[in-house]
Amino acid sequence: MASVANTAHPIAEPIGLGRRVLALIPGLLLLAAVGYAGKFIEQFIAAYTKSRHIVFPNIEYVLWAIVIGLLIANTVGVPRVFQAGVATYEFWLKTGIVLLGSRFLLGDILHLGGISLLLVAVALTLSLTFMHILGRSFKLKPKLTSLLAVGSSICGVSAIIAAKPAIDADDEDASYAIAAILALGALSLFTFPLIGHSLHLSDKAYGLWAGLAVDNTAEATAAGALYSDAAGKVAVLAKTSRNALIGFVVLAYAIYWASRGQAQTIGNKAQFLWQKFPKFVLGFLLISLLATLGIFTKPQLTSIANLSRWAFLLTFAGVGLRTSFHELGKQGWRPFAVGAIGEVFIALVTLGLVYGADRFLHL
Amino acid sequence: MPDPTAPRRGLSLDVYAVALALVLALLVRLNVIPAVKW
Predict the structure, then answer these.
(1) Which of A96, A152, A268, B22 could disulfide-pair with A312, CB 3.0 to 4.6 Å?
(2) Does B29 touch chain A (CB under 8 A)?
(3) What are the helix (H) ranges across A52-105?
(4) What is the pTM of this model?
């Protein structure tokens, strides 16, 4: 995923910090407008149906914000002046996740995070094996298969970006894998809540499933929040546990490809792991520790949780605005087919694991 | 479109996100910013 610094300006043309910040403003305003429009529509429909005694399901602002973003991105498009600011959605996602740490006691994190890690380890082994068999059957290039496997089993685009230089993969393969993962992430936003409701999953079970099965952190957070606030919280925790494993999986792939003479050997493995480790996980744990120690009063915890929701509002607007079906459609059907079959497999495996965990480990 | 796979320079996005979140939490703790509504 592109960072704010990367997207705000071309690297070859250094510009001052002030101008870089200014360049972000139009896109930030667009994120806020789209996100707030989603919130307004949710509240308007709720008030309208209530005043007229109409029974109507509450459609969360998350879905409205994503749909408005998708409509803009796929009709008029996002003009260049907005792109740098829109690209900050991932920054708001991470800020929101760290702030959300205040809503967890450290004990809850250890309990649910531990279960998540256990399930991730099982799902990871099965999904990596399955993706490689699938890639071979569809005659994909082995490194493209590796990227798709990493992207679909760990954390989507971030994992592909982390793995690409480590296994010395082509730019083209990385673009294919990213496009496939993004397209499948967009689909999961609409399918996961429907499946969850039809199976009558509890908030915890659904949140755990979304966090374990949906690839990108932004989509996993949105898929959880689309179900319920509580499910969104659990989805973020499960996804964060999964993200924490990124370094180990990328390291394993780097060692594998280096052993075949097709990637550089990793010198200092501890340094490599630290470099790939998502640092926002530490921020999430720190805020949770502060909350557990009673540093914040109850109203202060509510304020921090609400700040997290405002940050997510910008994120969800960005998820819709950055998804261009036209761009995704250009990438060819085979990586998409492998990704899609792999995703269905991972979704089924994780659903089975979550059912098992709900029954035997008492979520 | 920028190349999303280009190597990052300087501090990662995560560090800035953690810093902003901690600053916001501190401001809330010190009651510098009023109660945040949703």
Answers:
(1) A96
(2) yes
(3) 61-74, 80-86, 89-100
(4) 0.81
